[in-house]
TrEMBL record:
The lineage of its organism: Eukaryota, Metazoa, Chordata, Craniata, Vertebrata. This is G-protein coupled receptor 83. G-protein coupled receptor for PEN, a neuropeptide produced from the precursor protein, proSAAS (encoded by PCSK1N). Acts through a G(i)- and G(q)-alpha-alpha-mediated pathway in response to PEN. Plays a role in food intake and body weight regulation. May contribute to the regulation of anxiety-related behaviors. One of its GO terms (molecular function) is neuropeptide Y receptor activity. Keywords: Cell membrane, G-protein coupled receptor, Membrane, Receptor, Signal, Transducer, Transmembrane, Transmembrane helix.
């Protein structure tokens, strides 16, 4: 009974522990070595009962035992659990509320029916997806020290985390390309909504394809913790040579789908900033128009750069941690993983605040949406009991309300268009 207690904490899904030497799979280890490793013994029992095995090496088994022994003590701290629950709950609530609001504003505000606004809504959808299908499952796994969601969600949760990351990175790259076209070639036609929708479809297809290997090679490992308790671990299980496949898959994902796109985005925005600050806009008729256009476009670029920086900063520590683990550069720590995972998930919360701060079109659309939600009951509440407005008067009142609520936003949009 005592030997099984170390498995109370479920390890992080990114944990990759390849051996530096080509050891044989654990099933080929001599019996005297197996007697020293409770994880190896459990996996042998699992193989005997299920007719399948994990493609793990001797070194990987040792490292996972070290992790699990450490995780047992870390996961038992009530204060740490309470703090993590509150932190994850705040991220989930803020992310859902803010990103659903972004989608509502983009859909209902006709002034924001542009390709770039469509990309912004796509970022929000990606954030909603990872908030619903990954963040809560990671939290529950940490609190319960076991995977309780079954085999299907073991694959889906892993898939969603990678797919959302890829969608966000590729969408930010598409936004940078769109801004490059609009600012450096202002006389050419802008991207239409149809073209934007086609690019978003291509982004999701590419992200899904890149994420499939991480989702497919997952295995749900169950064991008897006590006579009446069965616990589960959702573990990666790549084909042979497992350690090389795991290592180079994580490395290629980091380089091709995170670092390279961010480098391209950085170069693109640096070029745009240089052009905006050094030249006039083609087509300006008056000095006032020139100043207004420059101001709006600079604000637009600042907003998009800030979105990219926040995304990159939030995800960079977790990606580096995964690479260091896969290369055996550091030892695994349960609490450190969940802190870095929380930081990455918190990236889903910030974009709505950035849009409100730096995007005048989004801010006016949000105000109009909130006014519509608030004004309708207010008009009815102002009527005294038994008092009913005549049909014509009520119609005029409603017309004045609609005209007044949108007139200001329309006027502001003409003078403070964010070019989005």
């Amino acid at each position: 009974m005592k030997k099984a207690t170390w498995l109370q904490a479920s390890p992080p899904p990114h944990l990759a522990l390849p051996a530096q030497l080509n050891f044989p799979p654990f099933v080929a280890l001599p019996e005297e070595s197996l007697s020293n490793f409770s994880l190896a013994k459990l996996m042998l029992l699992y193989q005997a009962e299920n007719g399948t095995s994990f493609n793990w090496t001797h070194r990987q088994i040792v490292e996972w035992e070290k992790f699990a022994e450490l995780a047992r003590y870390e996961s038992q701290k009530p204060a740490g659990k309470a703090l993590l629950i509150v932190a994850y709950a705040v991220v989930i609530l803020v992310s859902l509320f803010g990103n659903i609001l972004v989608c509502q504003v983009v859909v209902k505000n006709k002034k924001m029916h542009s390709a770039t606004s469509l990309f912004m809504a796509n970022l929000a959808v990606s954030d909603i997806m990872i908030t619903l299908l990954n963040t809560p499952f990671t939290l529950v796994r940490f609190v319960n020290s076991t995977w309780v969601f079954g085999k299907t969600m073991c694959h889906i949760s892993r898939f969603v985390q990678y797919c959302s990351l890829h969608v966000s990175t590729l969408t930010l790259t598409a936004i940078a390309l769109d801004r490059h076209q609009v600012i450096l070639n202002p006389l050419k036609p802008r991207m239409s909504l149809t073209q934007g929708a086609l690019r978003i479809s291509a982004i999701w297809i590419m992200a899904a394809c890149f994420s499939l290997p991480h989702a497919i090679y997952q295995k749900l490992f169950k064991y008897n913790y006590r006579k009446t308790t069965v616990r589960s671990l959702c573990l990666p299980d790549f084909p042979e040579p497992a350690e090389l496949v795991w290592k180079y898959l994580d490395l290629s994902t980091f380089l091709l789908l995170y670092l390279l796109p961010l480098l391209f985005i950085t170069i693109t925005y640096a070029r745009l900033a240089k052009k905006l600050w050094l030249r006039n806009t083609v087509g300006d008729i008056t000095m006032q128009q020139s100043v207004a256009h420059h101001k709006n476009k600079k604000r637009s670029i600042k907003m998009l750069i800030l979105v990219v920086v926040v995304f990159a900063v939030c995800w960079f520590p977790l990606n580096c941690y995964v690479l260091l683990i896969s290369s055996m550069g550091i030892q695994t720590r349960n609490s450190l993983y969940f802190i870095l995972h929380w930081l990455a998930m918190s990236s889903t919360c910030y974009n709505p605040f950035i849009y409100c701060w730096l995007n005048e079109g989004f801010r006016s659309g949000l105000k109009s949406l909130l006014v519509i939600c608030r004004k309708a009951p207010t008009m009815r509440d102002n009527l005294r009991p038994g008092m009913v407005l005549p049909y014509r008067e009520a119609w005029m009142e409603q017309a004045r309300y609609k005209h007044g609520s949108f007139l200001r936003s329309t006027t502001d949009g003409q003078t403070l268009n964010t070019d989005l």
